[in-house]
Amino acid sequence: MSEQEQYAKTAQQQAELSRRAPNARELASQGPGLDNYEAVMAAAASAATMAKRAPLTYLTPEPQGPAAELNDVAETGASPSLATRYLGLDLRSPLVASAGPLSQSVEGIKELADTGLGAVVMYSLFEEQIRRQEARQVALLERHEEAFAEALNYFPEPEELGSQDIIRNYLQLVEDAAKAIDIPLIASLNGATHGGWVDTARQLQDAGAAALELNIYMVPGDLGVTGAEVEERHLEILAGVKQAVDIPVAVKLSPYFSSVGQMAIALDEAGADGLVLFNRFLQPDIDIERLEVVPGVELSTPFEARLPRTWIAVLHGKLRASLAGTSGVETVDDVVKYLLAGADVVMTTSALVRHGRGYASTLVDGLGQWLSRKDLTLDRVRGMLAVPEEARASGYERAGYVAALQRAKTRYGA
């Protein structure tokens, strides 16, 4: 039996064991010839090693149905298409600029659009900014409500009410930028309560946003708040916004739910058009010389992509909503990994902050070159290494965990 044939047989056995066994000890008892815990770890490591050596085509079945009609790039000689669907929108590529500081002007947004990106997510409008603006307007009106009617020049002018109108400036930027680019512009709202989101969401739609991204950044500081209450808050915010607008709505999630998969399913059933995995909690640091807590804002690194990729691989094919991978994108390799896991689109800002907006062209071109080199289409790549639908995700991930531990023992053991 050749090494490739042996790999195919071993991979099939591992998939079956992963489906049947809830943990590694049961794998040891169920697998033929695997009569102890150490043996199953060795077998898992062996399978992982053979998987690295085997051709990529051994990891996916031949496409059926419409996918079978797609010709490999090598046969057609054409450049691979990067056309993508996200949130029901047609994108020219699966690369998207995520919310960040590079989208604060029409010129900056146009520069991003000229790189070949499929869409641009604008920087976030924060709930606190909305509340502060509303409070300032109310305070100005109340300050003058006792004035005599004859003193017309005493009533606050519109300019006084909105000279620093953050909401109005954001809406104007959406309107101007949406007209200036030929790709979808996605507005971003960041908050943690049901408060002023609904009206603002409607205004963003009217201004020309192609979709909305709800960045629900909730850090429960009240120790009495239950996990169920946190989840319900997310669903309430989504329901309120969905009722107010007709454009697609994506939810940017935290990875810190007790059951990420169940939360994803609940949001999907509640009407979310897409899920963005994951939000990064900017955790503070401590300055031991100044004896104070300092804010922590760091650009993401490729290591951080492992968690969202894992969940995308689990959720791929199980939701109606689109899946976007974000965090940890630095090179085209990181883009490809997200797509292999099952992401519909891949988002990045940190890499563009490090290398400039034009670096997006490098990522887009690099993806096309990789597809050509592998003689693959984007549709065939997407989800190629996701958790198989017939496999039980917990067992599948457990088998990977066991293999990782065995590899660590081999690499770092004395």
Describe the structure.
With 414 residues, the protein is an alpha/beta fold. The protein has two domains: 3-61 and 393-412, no CATH class; 84-381, Alpha-Beta Barrel (TIM Barrel), CATH 3.20.20.70. Helix content is 47%, strand content 13%. The chain is built from 17 helices and twelve strands. It has helices at 3-20, 24-30, 37-53, 73-76, 106-113, 127-143, 158-162, 166-180, 197-207, 227-244, 260-269, 306-315, 332-341, 350-355, 359-374, 378-381, 393-412, and strands at 84-86, 89-91, 95-97, 119-126, 185-191, 211-216, 249-253, 274-277, 285-287, 292-294, 322-326, 345-348. The strands form three sheets. Strands 3-4-5-6-7-8-11-12 form an eight-stranded parallel β-barrel, surrounded by nine helices. A hairpin with a 2-residue loop joins strand 1 and strand 2 (89-91). The chain is globular, with a radius of gyration of 25 Å. Mean pLDDT is 78; it is low at 6-11, 13-75 and 134-164.
In short:
With 414 residues, the chain is of the alpha/beta class. It is built from 17 helices and twelve strands.
Give me the secondary-structure topology.
Blueprint: H1 3-20, H2 24-30, H3 37-53, H4 73-76, E1 84-86, E2 89-91, E3 95-97, H5 106-113, E4 119-126, H6 127-143, H7 158-162, H8 166-180, E5 185-191, H9 197-207, E6 211-216, H10 227-244, E7 249-253, H11 260-269, E8 274-277, E9 285-287, E10 292-294, H12 306-315, E11 322-326, H13 332-341, E12 345-348, H14 350-355, H15 359-374, H16 378-381, H17 393-412
Parallel strand pairs: 3-4, 3-12, 4-5, 5-6, 6-7, 7-8, 8-11, 11-12
Antiparallel strand pairs: 1-2, 9-10
